[in-house]
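Lab notebook, bench 4. Still working through the backlog of constructs that have no structural model yet. Next entry is a single chain of 843 residues. Request: give me the structure tokens for it.
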Amino acid sequence: MTVEFKRTFVDPCAIEPYDKDWGVAANCMNDEPSPFPRMNRILKYFHNIDFSIDHERACLVTEVYKNNPDKPQAIKCAMALAHVLRNVSIKIHPYELIVGETAAPMKAAPIFPEFSYNWIMDEMKNFPFQDRELDQYNISEETQKQLLELADFWKGKTVEEQILSTASADELKGTQVGRGVYLLNLYFYGGVGHVCANYELLLANGFGKQKRRIQEKLAALDPSLPDDLKKREFYESQLIAVDASSDYIRRYAVLAREMAESETDANRKDELLQIADNCEWIAENPPRNFFEALQLVHFATIIILIESNGHSISYGRFDQYMYPFYKQDLETGVADREFMQELVECFYIKMATSTKLRDKMTAISNTGRGMGGDSLTVGGVDRKGHDATNDLSYMCIDAHAHTLYGTPWLCVRWHANTPREYRIKTANLIRMGTGQPKVYNDESAILSQVAKGVPVEDARDYAIVGCVEIDSPGKEYGWHDSAYFNMAKVLELAINNGRCVGCASHCPRWEICGGIGQRLGPETGSLAEFQSFEDVLESFDTQMKYWCDQMIAGINVMDICQQKLKPLPYLSLLIDDCIEKGIDVSAGGARYNFNGPQGVGIGSVADGLSAIKQLVFEEKKVKGEDYLDALEKNWEGYETLYALVNSDKVHHYGNDDDYADDLAQLGFNTYCKYVEGRPDARGGMFIPGVYSVTANVGLGLIQWASADGKKAGEPVSDCLGPVHNASGSHDIKGPTAIVKSVTKLDHIRATNGTLLNWKFAPSAVAGESGRDNLISLLEVYFQNKGHHSQFNVISRETLEAALANPEDYKHLAVRVAGYSAYFVELSKPLQMDIMGRTELSFD
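Model written out:
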């Protein structure tokens, strides 16, 4: 029975006018941002809960592993998931309409011991989570006791330990456990994620029909065939997972009905009864309306998180697969636009209740306690190439303006025929200054998808997963973000005969990086002996190939170990072709299997090569050995050279200067050619991305001074942007010059994505002229086949005030790189990196 809701809020325009100006740089100025009283109450409730760590999932999983040591791994993983779903504590919170959590209380991080456990034990004992400077988590004495008791069992059984025992010394020496030429830590210590389920299929079938498909496949097997025996294990694990998923949803129906019995508020009683009805139905059946569909999407997603320990579990083209329910409800009168807007906002905040525990070092370069990567895509073209913008596309933008939280990571697709009204609405949200949304160019994204072998109709249907990456939702297991590769470090090794620059007597971080002065790569010569700039480029090419080889070997080791120890039978329900093939998604069951490591520091490479070419070989203002000595000494005693390298007397990338921009292209193409098309461990291939998210900060912390003018410990250049360091920014000619420089790179070739961060002073985008200038900038960037842009609209003065008085700015959101976060919660290196980005204007 459908309950009719009694709501007090009435607004003749539940969808905000397309040109509503929410204010420029106004993102932290409103304690009640939503027109819906419910939402403002939920936001206050949410903000008053502290982040914490919960032990329940870890204990339940351990019980299954202890009691079933001889079960096949896929069956064991499915049984562990089922045990969690049927036994973990659940709760329905005040005011909420969308229910369900990730096997932990609201804002509590569940623990995944099957992936890695040693670092958790070390930090719990020696670096208490609640005492961290960044990303603090409360942890009770009972939780500490329970987690400590699990340590002995998991010794030697984790994915991390399997990787360490499988990889060779050469494959490890360049990683985060070696010298940090590249970082493999995401999937080294945790799950993969970075995927989007086939929500459209689930909404059409429900869990019940998916179960029947599996039963039919299982019944058709011939157990005398070896391949069918393998498939039998896979299908049996899926049946365990799908039954437990339905049971988990039914538990919320029971809880909602129990709560309704004792509820004295008539409105809330009706809501709880409706929640119970919704959950009872969608436990097996396809949803009948927008409310049920939204609830099923939420449950489907959190169960992926409970199973996989992956982040960047993304919501795909939300405005496309939810639109039929929206349209039907309006036409039949089941719900009005106002109520569906309120539901979307409830859904947004429900995403924010999930969190993930990350290690203390990750907290420095990738600060943020949210789950991360929950991208939601709106706009763009449909599978036939026609504009697909609809009411929900607009409503999703309104929902962020009404909640002002960092989830979901809102992704807006633009194309040549995107309505002017939608461009205006997007620009007005950008101008609020929360860092949302990120904007994608359909033309380059679709061509990039086709370039990696995706048919054009699937290519047009792309969605964003995580920070940057384009993905075929429900069809792809892309291993996006499988590594962050420091191209600036490769240049360092190329000019120093395969050795790290610097020495222990000068480096305050030598105990951390450990590699200073040691040989890492092949002997390819030194800047002290090179006779021409061509020698530098040859050395760079050789080092690049060597280090890409090592990185790819290390990633494939991780992939194989993940397949062996952590199959994903539940996720395999929701990714095309896994059921048809009888193969787990982790082992190549998906239709498209890619692997996407990111190249970091393209601006640093361009400016480093440019300075060497100009000053050492053309103008001969400094000898090669003296340039190297300046880097060894962190520019101490070489202040004049340091000033010159960072001055406008040297060619710099980002100023529409072909001299430097050509070298950026060279660095970009060299990385891509040694990554693209190589086979991965799931029958797919490697695809390059060129961006950093925040890895430029972490990689910079463990790198000494570099040829582009960076001092020890400073970040390398961020994403596709020009260099900015303690001396200032290397781009000086404004946003148009940046557009021209950056679009000389072949974005389509970087098939795992690119990213350009922008930072504008609020005054630059104020008023209709500022808004239209912002729209025109994006249009020009996209016409030149730029791929993806993100924005900060905030003044340095505001950031400085937030540093001085953090309590007054605790809800000041900024765009970090692939994600938004509260500025005052970021690490100091990240804060400085954001403050150091060029503050642009249209003058």
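Notes after review: The first helix runs from residue 37 to 47. The CA atoms of residues 15 and 197 lie 28 Å apart. Flag for follow-up if needed.
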